[in-house]
Write a structure and sequence with these properties.
By secondary structure, this protein is of the alpha+beta class. It has one domain. It is about 35% helix and about 10% strand. The protein is built from 4 helices and 4 strands, in the order βαβαββαα. Strands 2-1-3-4 form a 4-stranded mixed sheet. Helix 1 links the parallel strand 1 and strand 2. The radius of gyration is 15 Å and the shape is globular.
Length: about 140
């Protein structure tokens, strides 16, 4: 396994969303330097770091990316900015996603929100959060 000097990012995702889980599966495959960590937005880590509050937002509507720091004040990105940050951080050919920054954020986020709003209806939903395989356990936070 390669080690990388880049700061790790934590990708908080909707653990019961099929689309979100497929996206995480894809990221695990392409992140050869292992610069990403993953945590369900409904999990302990997201609550402890102030990412998700079930009382405020019953259905998580956005992927959230945060620098991997234990405290709540780590830099964060959401919606289309989060997706672009993920791909540019993975590096290699995926860094080309940075070109999407030329598209106005308002337009990018409108597309993102439309997909997010309809993700359960189109892609389905799981009864429980994703359970990482033995090989993936080191990449996932509770």
């Amino acid at each position: 396994m390669m080690q990388d000097s880049r700061t790790r990012l934590v990708v908080y995702f909707d653990g019961v969303c099929n689309l979100c889980n497929r996206f995480v599966d894809f990221l695990v495959r392409i992140d050869r330097a292992r610069v990403l960590r993953y945590a369900p937005i409904q999990g302990e880590t997201a609550r402890a770091r102030g990412i998700y509050d079930a009382a405020r937002e019953p259905v998580p509507g956005s992927i959230v990316v945060q620098r991997d720091v234990a405290e709540q004040d780590g830099e964060r990105w959401t919606e289309s900015d989060a997706v672009i940050r993920i791909f540019t951080h993975v590096g290699g050919i995926w860094s080309a996603a940075a070109i999407l920054r030329v598209v106005p954020r308002t337009l990018r986020n409108a597309v993102y929100r439309t997909v997010a709003r309809n993700r359960y209806r189109i892609f389905g939903r799981r009864d429980t959060c994703r359970v990482p395989s033995d090989e993936e356990k080191a990449l996932f936070l509770p």
